[in-house]
Amino acid sequence: MALDKKSGYRKNFSLSVTFIALISILFILSLFLAFNYSKKSIENEFVSEKVNVLEESIKPYNEFFQNKMPEVSYYNGFLDSATASKFVDTVVHKFPFVDKVMFYDSEVKNVPVRDGVNVGHLSIGPKSIFQFGKKVNPDSVKLFSEQYSRSFRIDDDFNSMALKLVRFIDQIDTASVPTQEELFTNFSVVLSNKITYLNIPRREDLKVYKEMLQSKLNPAPVYQQDILVFDLDPKKIKIINTRPLLYQIIRVEPLTYDPIDTSDENITTEIALPGAFSDFKLYFTSSKSYIKKEIFIYFMPIALVLLLVYGVLLLVAFLIYRNLNINSKMFKLQYDFVNNLTHEFKTPVSVIKIAGNNIKSATALTQKEQQLYGKILDEEADKLNGLMNKLLAFTQIENKAIILNQEEVNIEDFIESTIESHTLKHPDFIMTYEVVGFKTFITDPVLLGSLFDNLAENAYKYSNPGNKKLNVSAKLIKGVLVFRFADKGIGIPSSELNNIFKKFFRIQNEYNQMGSVGLGLAFCKELVNFMQGEITVKSKIGMGTEFKVVLPYNIKN
Amino acid sequence: MLKNIILLALVAFIWACKGTKEEKIIPVDNFFRTQDKAYYHVSPDGKSLSYLKLQDKKLDLFIEDIETGSVKQLTHLDEKSISFYFWTSNNELIYYTEDESKERKSDLFVVSKDGSRRKQLSSNEKTKVRVIEDQLIDDKYIILASNKRDSTVFDVYRLNVRTGKMDIAAKNPGNVTEWVTDNKGILKIAVASDGVNETLLYRENETLPFKPVITNNFETTLQPVAFAENEKDVLFAISNVNRDKNALVALDLKTGREKKVLFGNDTLNVVDAKYSKAKKKMIFVTCETWKKEKFYLDDSTKVKYAQIDKLLPGTEWRIMDKDKGDNTFVVRTYTDRNPGSYYLYIAGQNKLKKLADINPSINEKDMSEMKPISYKSSDGLTINGYLTLPKGKNATNLPLVVLPHSGPGGRNIWGYNADVQFFANRGYAVLQVNYRGSTGYGKSFYAAGFKQWSDKIQEDVNDGVKWLIKEKIANPKKIAIYGNGLGGFVALNCLYKNPDIYACGGSNSGVISLFSYLTTIPPFLKSNLQMYYEIFGNPETDTDYTRFASPVFHADRFKAPVFIAQNPKDPRVNVAQGVQFVKELKKRNVPVTYIEKEEGSNPVLRQQGRTALYKALEGFLQENLKQR
């Protein structure tokens, strides 16, 4: 820890924990807020969506009012009982809320009528009255006719429509063209559950009506007008629940409907029906548990998104943590390396220093001493040079900064010279070799030499005294060269096998306390890679290690 | 720089050349333009020519001395405009003016031809006047029909042009629709109608009561032409009593029988006949097959008229007016490609002088030929019609516009037709069909169309189209149908019933419901209504048929694009219904082009309305025929 601090490298476990805790709290908080939001919006929708239900459910009524009813005008007063009956059939079939239709086959004339409305010289009276509808008894279809006037009072519907017509004719300015809307409003009476419609005559006819109102025309004209009274039943409106998950029950209720038993279990809302149904409203009920389902349906996607965000955050945190870990390991390796390197340089430098001091302080140097110091200085300088060359070569190879030298190498000579140089250095090192299948090949002898030297050096270094043996075999197998370096050394624990080719890695044991910077095998690996080959290792603790190097077999053409 | 200019000029030149090779697109208004100088009349002595000319938006009366060529303007009107005028003697004219108000207030004047004497005979009358005898009797009376006693019926009056006094000459019992005087101005004939049947009434002189001579169904024609001056109680009349085609006959007014057939033929239908007061005989009849043709009953007339033929080669002509001595004529020419011109012809000098072109903006070379066609309907009737092909195009695979004519009765005629030429100029072949029920092909053909408005009449139109497809003239994918009035009714019915034939269709002021069409006949004309019920069916008893036949009830069956134009101020049309119909179509996602057109008496507004209407129609056809 102290080391970490000094090097400026920090690792804080509690920071990670705090971070995770914080985002977890945020996650839970946002889940909570999202749920509340869902609840609020569903509750809002419960109130606002009723407009859509109303709109959809009232569509047939609007179609009836705006399209079907005005069709009466197409007949221009020529509607008779048979055609009217057919017309009503289609209406009742298509618009189930139409209960019953009264049909007043009427006349507008200059002659006063007994039944009907007489204003000025204008008289409006029915010739015959019929009623149609699903519930109408076939023998009570015809209610009245001029010939057989049964006792039947012309009711208010007829009179109010007729009076409205008279009022309109009275006020109309025959010079101007009445608008569509004006005509429609003046030729229909909308009451509660009842619409009266009078076919709209031509402008020319209205002019004549106006004249008829003021004076008796000669010859007395007679005009046909059809009045239809539609009895509507709001209970038969087909309710279209556009949000079946939101509204459990929708009913048509009178405007005054307000049940006392409003238990906490249900929530309700209402909206008034338009037009002829204005005494009624749509009444919406849903139990709270019913609503809850809808809330969850609304909430689930939000929750999933939040979860996803949370997961991504956690993943990112983990990855950052992992990277930091790796970096910290790397940092430690580099630190060790510098340590080792310093140590490595320290020995020759201090030897040189001592030799220097000795030479400086000695008054005279004997031949022997001079030779000794010279040899020491020369050796130590070589050591330093070797170290520096190694470091330089390694970085060069690693950065692919050197160019491969292609030369023909006689493998037997090459191995022999390697053995010679090593046994010269270490007389107790026993090296053997075998070559099978080839004699020469093309490669960079310097790099190959480095490789051989390093591997041989390692074999010597990591073997117990008296057992320092290395067998080098070179074989041509299936078109590639396979070199094996098998020693009888201490072996490498299998847990470390994966790491030995890493830079600055050293197995911590007594054999490498000195003279090692942990670059050797990493350097070998870089060399082999550079020569387009492969290096692998097999090892058993106490039994020995075998490095296998596979190189491409190139020969001179 | 100079190079560029030369290049530019070259490009412009090439472009211009290219333009002339393609058919010129003629502006809409050019087709419909009419002359501002018309209503030519010759004085009875043949010395003066009179005409109306537009001065400051009002028509004024001008007199030209034929010999000297000096012109005098007789009227300077500012409030009212002349509706009609006539020569009442060699030196005097009578003219009738109306204002544009709703009541159509009218004045009547008599004026001498030099303008020195002028007398107002009536002022600001709200009644209507029809002239029965325009020549002065006893140098002071003319005979008029007026509805001043009862606005629904016309009584006959004798008007003293010297004092302005009007005396009733015959009171209309209410059913007389036509009055005829003899050559001396004595009121001898009345035609009474109960709507379905027409009765010819006759009296020998004005002291006797009218007696019925002959009664005919409305399908039958009996049209008085002139009294025979040489024979007593004989009337020349165009008649198809007991025959299919119209003939010119001499009718014995005592017995009601035909005395003589002056001109009659199984295939030729007489549409007009001319009597010469100078020769005291019938001089020629006009028959119409695919075009009008004159057949002479007098040799000297034949020789005289052959001179006019020689002077006017390659064109048809008819006499608009002539003097009493058959010497000075106002002649109007016409062809299918030319609305024609007015000429003054003086027989004595064999001299022809052009007075005016009817529509100077029409160049005959740019117009298309109107060819007569005929084909067999699917039930074996021969149907006649006309086919106009666009100029400069091969007669194969053309987009087609079908124009059913309005009705009831009526027919398409050969001659210049602005609508037809407009469509042809825009690159469409135009088919006009004289479907059954059209007049001019005999009584039985006329009657064959009764109550067939939603059946055989449409089949006749469809058969014509199928015939054109079979002849490879029409492109079966590019056929439109369009009509006015009842033509629009036929068009809409054809359109929705035959989606396989028509790609689009339209109606202009069209009848969309027979119910409302039949209510346009005022209730006090109940008798007349019977005739319409014969032709269309009775909406009270045949409600189902009437409903079936009316397109307004079948909005759900329309699929193809529809063009609908109507005048929102038209009091005779149920405008609300038209709008409702359009709304219904739109709701059913039928593409509708709806035009509200202006049809006031203001000529500028009327022209603007017409331009807008035809522009919209052109666009509608372009979109639905050419671009498919």
Automatic annotation (TrEMBL), chain A:
Xref: SUPFAM superfamilies: ATPase domain of HSP90 chaperone/DNA topoisomerase II/histidine kinase, Homodimeric domain of signal transducing histidine kinase
- Say yes or no: keyword Methyltransferase present: no
Q: Identify the domain of life.
A: Bacteria
Residue ranges of the TM segments: 12-35, 295-321
The question of whether Nuclease is a record keyword is answered with: no
Q: Protein name, please?
A: histidine kinase
Keywords linked to the UniProt accession: Kinase, Membrane, Phosphoprotein, Transferase, Transmembrane, Transmembrane helix, Two-component regulatory system
Enumerate the catalysed reactions.
Answer: ATP + protein L-histidine = ADP + protein N-phospho-L-histidine
The cross-references to SMART domains, in alphabetical order and at most eight, read:
HATPase_c, HisKA
| PROSITE patterns recorded | HIS_KIN
Q: Which InterPro entries match?
A: BphY/WalK/GraS-like, HATPase_C_sf, HATPase_dom, His_kinase_dom, HisK_dim/P_dom, HisK_dim/P_sf, Sig_transdc_His_kin-like_C
Instruction: Give one Pfam family.
Output: HisKA
Give start and end of each Histidine kinase domain: 340-555
Task: Specify the enzyme's EC class, one word.
Answer: transferase
Automatic annotation (TrEMBL), chain B:
Pfam families (alphabetical): Peptidase_S9 (PF00326)
Keywords from the named record: Hydrolase
Q: Where is the Peptidase S9 prolyl oligopeptidase catalytic domain?
A: 414-627
Matching InterPro entries: 6-blade_b-propeller_TolB-like, AB_hydrolase_fold, Peptidase_S9_cat
Keyword Hydrolase in record: yes
Q: What is this protein called?
A: Peptidase
